[in-house]
Amino acid sequence: MDKKTTEFYIRLREELNNTSDWPSEYLYKFIVPTDPKKVEEVENAFDNMGAVIQTTQSKTGKYTSISVNVMMETPDHVVEKYIEVSNIEGIISL
């Protein structure tokens, strides 16, 4: 992970600590190239967590947006999940 990414996650962790009581519901938003395997990889990352997952294809069908609403224990867990899914090729975290 580069310095800029590390600094982003440090700031995110601090903001989450200051703005929410934990455990708390958290909404992840991702965009992936439309490929059932990539969508499945994201869904699998949140498997057995009680997550509510919604997917929507772009108008051209080239991309799929994925919204994941899930209860997270701490800001550290939120950041860990972002890092975990960042290994999926082509994923954009919003």
Described by strand count, sense and barrel closure, the largest sheet is: 4 strands, antiparallel
Which whole number gives the mean pLDDT?
A: 95
Annotation field: number of helices: 3
Helix/strand order, N-terminal first: HEHEEHE
Beta-strand percentage range: 25-35%
Number of domains: 1
CATH architecture descriptor: 2-Layer Sandwich
CATH fold name, please? Alpha-Beta Plaits
What general form does the structure show?
globular
What is the fourth-level CATH superfamily? ACT domain
**Main β-sheet, spatial strand arrangement:** 2-3-1-4
Low-confidence stretches: none
Tell me roughly what share of residues is in helical segments. 40-55%
Gyration radius over CA: 14 Å
CATH class equals Alpha Beta
Q: Tell me the span between the first and last alpha carbons.
A: 18 Å
How many strand segments?
4
Structural class: alpha+beta
In short:
By secondary structure, the chain is α+β, with helices and mostly antiparallel strands. It contains 3 helices and 4 strands, in the order H-E-H-E-E-H-E. A hairpin with a 5-residue loop joins strand 2 and strand 3 (63-72).
Any overview of this molecule?
With 94 residues, the protein is an alpha+beta fold. It has one domain: ACT domain (Alpha-Beta Plaits, 2-Layer Sandwich). The chain is built from three helices and four strands; from the N terminus they run αβαββαβ. It has a four-stranded antiparallel beta sheet. α1 packs antiparallel against α3. The two termini are 18 Å apart.
